[in-house]
From TrEMBL:
UniProt keyword terms in alphabetical order: Carboxypeptidase, Cell shape, Cell wall biogenesis/degradation, Hydrolase, Membrane, Peptidoglycan synthesis, Protease, Signal, Transmembrane, Transmembrane helix
Source organism of the structure: Maccoyibacter intestinihominis
Residues annotated as transmembrane: 404-424
Domain Peptidase S11 D-alanyl-D-alanine carboxypeptidase A N-terminal: 34-272
EC number from the UniProt entry: 3.4.-.-
Name recorded for this polypeptide: D-alanyl-D-alanine carboxypeptidase family protein
Pfam families: Peptidase_S11 (PF00768)
Family note: Belongs to the peptidase S11 family.
Chain coiled-coil ranges: none
């Protein structure tokens, strides 16, 4: 009986010990991705622009009318193709053929403004006549040429569901895009310093022109940056964006925000106001509250030069310079840099890269960094001016005549110097003796007297 009690006591003790010590056993935490808020807008996407990490997406490939967020592309093309001090003249088509009761700043026929002033009108007041006049100016009087530039740029940026047919976003069945494509365009525009300055301006004043004696004051219509109609949505960290609305497109919105080293862009399409502002604010709060950015260069310890060399990315003709200092990854604040999984890619994003480290976490692509190489080249030999021969893999050397002459002269001089050195070395004693004799040569007068004495004795 006592024995059974003893066994039960031991069992009870072990059970209690297991309960209190079980929590001390290390357990591998699963990858955690924060739960995003619900959005009323049907098509939304948020990206961290430094890393390219998508933090939220919803129906991003659906095709919709963009309305006036089209003008982001219009402004980007104008900045890239024109000069800010160019003089733009407003034609009759620009003044009279652009619909929209509120999307204009009442420019007159033959009015002259700089391209810079026009672009502030486009981005802040969404002025349709300014967008048209800019397109005419850049397109050499032909707006369709400017529209072609817009479509070419969209293709270059990787857009697959986009076709532009005008510069202002007025309804057109041949004028459409998707949330994903619009985000690619918005991100590319934000990389341009002039664009960032324009989109982040709250108030701009156009001085008197040849048609207007008074100044024209422009106000940014984006309520998260400037209280154009309401201060309700003013957002700390908002750096610009563009609003859009037509009956066909509903409300569209592009917004930029920066905080804690992160740069976010949010695109909303086909929304019912004020959901486009509310959803953007909520998503920005979600991103800034739950995520943080890491520098790959400062945190990556595993992939050293030797490790990268082992992957075969760097060949013997390339000199490793390091990881791109601008490379970064975005992770939940509950995760550390080491929690992300890394993969080496053979193609980087920059021209001077030999490859790229790309990271994932919880099934999400979270960014990366290019593997940079130096531009230094080994010094070329005179025979290094080779040309490809007829057959693949064969090379033929073409050596210039003056190169051959110089080489022959150098060889002959070197040979002559070598022979002279050899002769001096072999006859050093004889040469030294002759030199010494010349130094100790007797006085000529003594020689004459001596010879004279010899002759006298013989007599």
């Amino acid at each position: 009986m006592k024995k059974n009690r003893w066994k039960k006591g031991i069992a009870l003790f072990l059970s209690i010990t297991a309960i209190f010590t079980g929590s001390m056993i290390p357990v591998q935490a699963s990858e955690y991705w924060p739960q995003a808020p619900e959005t009323a807008s049907p098509c939304v996407m948020v990206m961290e622009m430094n890393t390219g990490a998508v933090l939220y997406e919803k129906n991003v490939d659906e095709v919709h009318y963009p309305a006036s967020i089209t003008k982001i592309m219009t402004t980007l093309i104008a900045i890239e193709k024109g000069k800010m001090d160019d003089i733009v003249t407003f034609s009759a088509d620009a003044v009279y053929k652009n619909e929209g009761d509120t999307s204009h700043i009442s420019r007159d026929l033959e009015e002259k403004m700089t391209l810079e002033q026009c672009l502030y009108g486009v981005m802040l007041e969404s002025a349709n006549e300014c967008a048209y006049a800019v397109a005419e100016h850049i397109g050499g009087g032909d707006v369709s040429k400017f529209v072609d530039m817009m479509n070419e740029k969209a293709k270059e940026l990787g857009c697959t569901n986009t076709h532009f047919n005008n510069t202002n976003g007025l309804p057109d069945e041949q004028h459409y895009t998707s949330t994903r494509d619009m985000l690619l365009i918005a991100r590319a525009a934000y990389e341009n310093e002039e664009f960032r300055k324009i989109t982040g301006t709250k108030v701009y004043v156009i001085p008197p022109t040849n048609k207007h004696e008074d100044e024209t004051t422009l106000h940014n219509h984006h309520n998260m940056l400037y209280p154009f109609r309401t201060a309700k949505y003013i957002y700390d960290g908002c750096t610009g964006g563009k609003t859009g609305y037509t009956v066909a497109a509903n409300s569209t919105l592009v917004t930029y925000a920066e905080r804690d080293g992160m740069s976010l862009v949010c695109v909303v399409m086909n929304a019912q106001a004020p959901a486009h502002f509310e959803d953007t604010v909520n998503l920005f709060n979600y991103c800034f509250d739950n995520f943080q950015i890491f520098s790959v260069k400062d945190n990556e310890k595993a992939y050293t030069k030797d490790k990268i060399q082992d992957t075969g990315i760097l060949n013997t003709d390339q000199s490793f310079a390091g990881l791109d200092k601008n490379g970064g990854i975005i992770l939940p604040k509950t995760a550390s840099f080491e929690d992300a999984k890394v993969e080496v890619k053979e193609k980087g994003e920059s021209k001077n890269s030999a490859g790229r480290l790309e990271y994932t976490y919880a099934g999400h692509a979270v960014g990366g960094a290019d593997i940079m190489v130096t531009k230094a080249e080994p010094e070329k030999f005179p025979f290094d001016n080779t040309k490809e021969a007829g057959k693949k893999g064969e090379k033929t050397a073409y050596v210039k005549g003056n190169t051959i002459v110089m080489l022959v002269i150098i060889v002959l001089v070197c040979a002559a110097l070598a022979l002279i050195g050899r002769y001096v070395s072999d006859n050093s004693f004889v040469i030294k003796t002759k030199v010494d004799r010349k130094r100790n040569k007797p006085d000529p007068r003594y020689t004459i007297i001596r010879n004279s004495k010899k002759k006298w004795r013989r007599k």
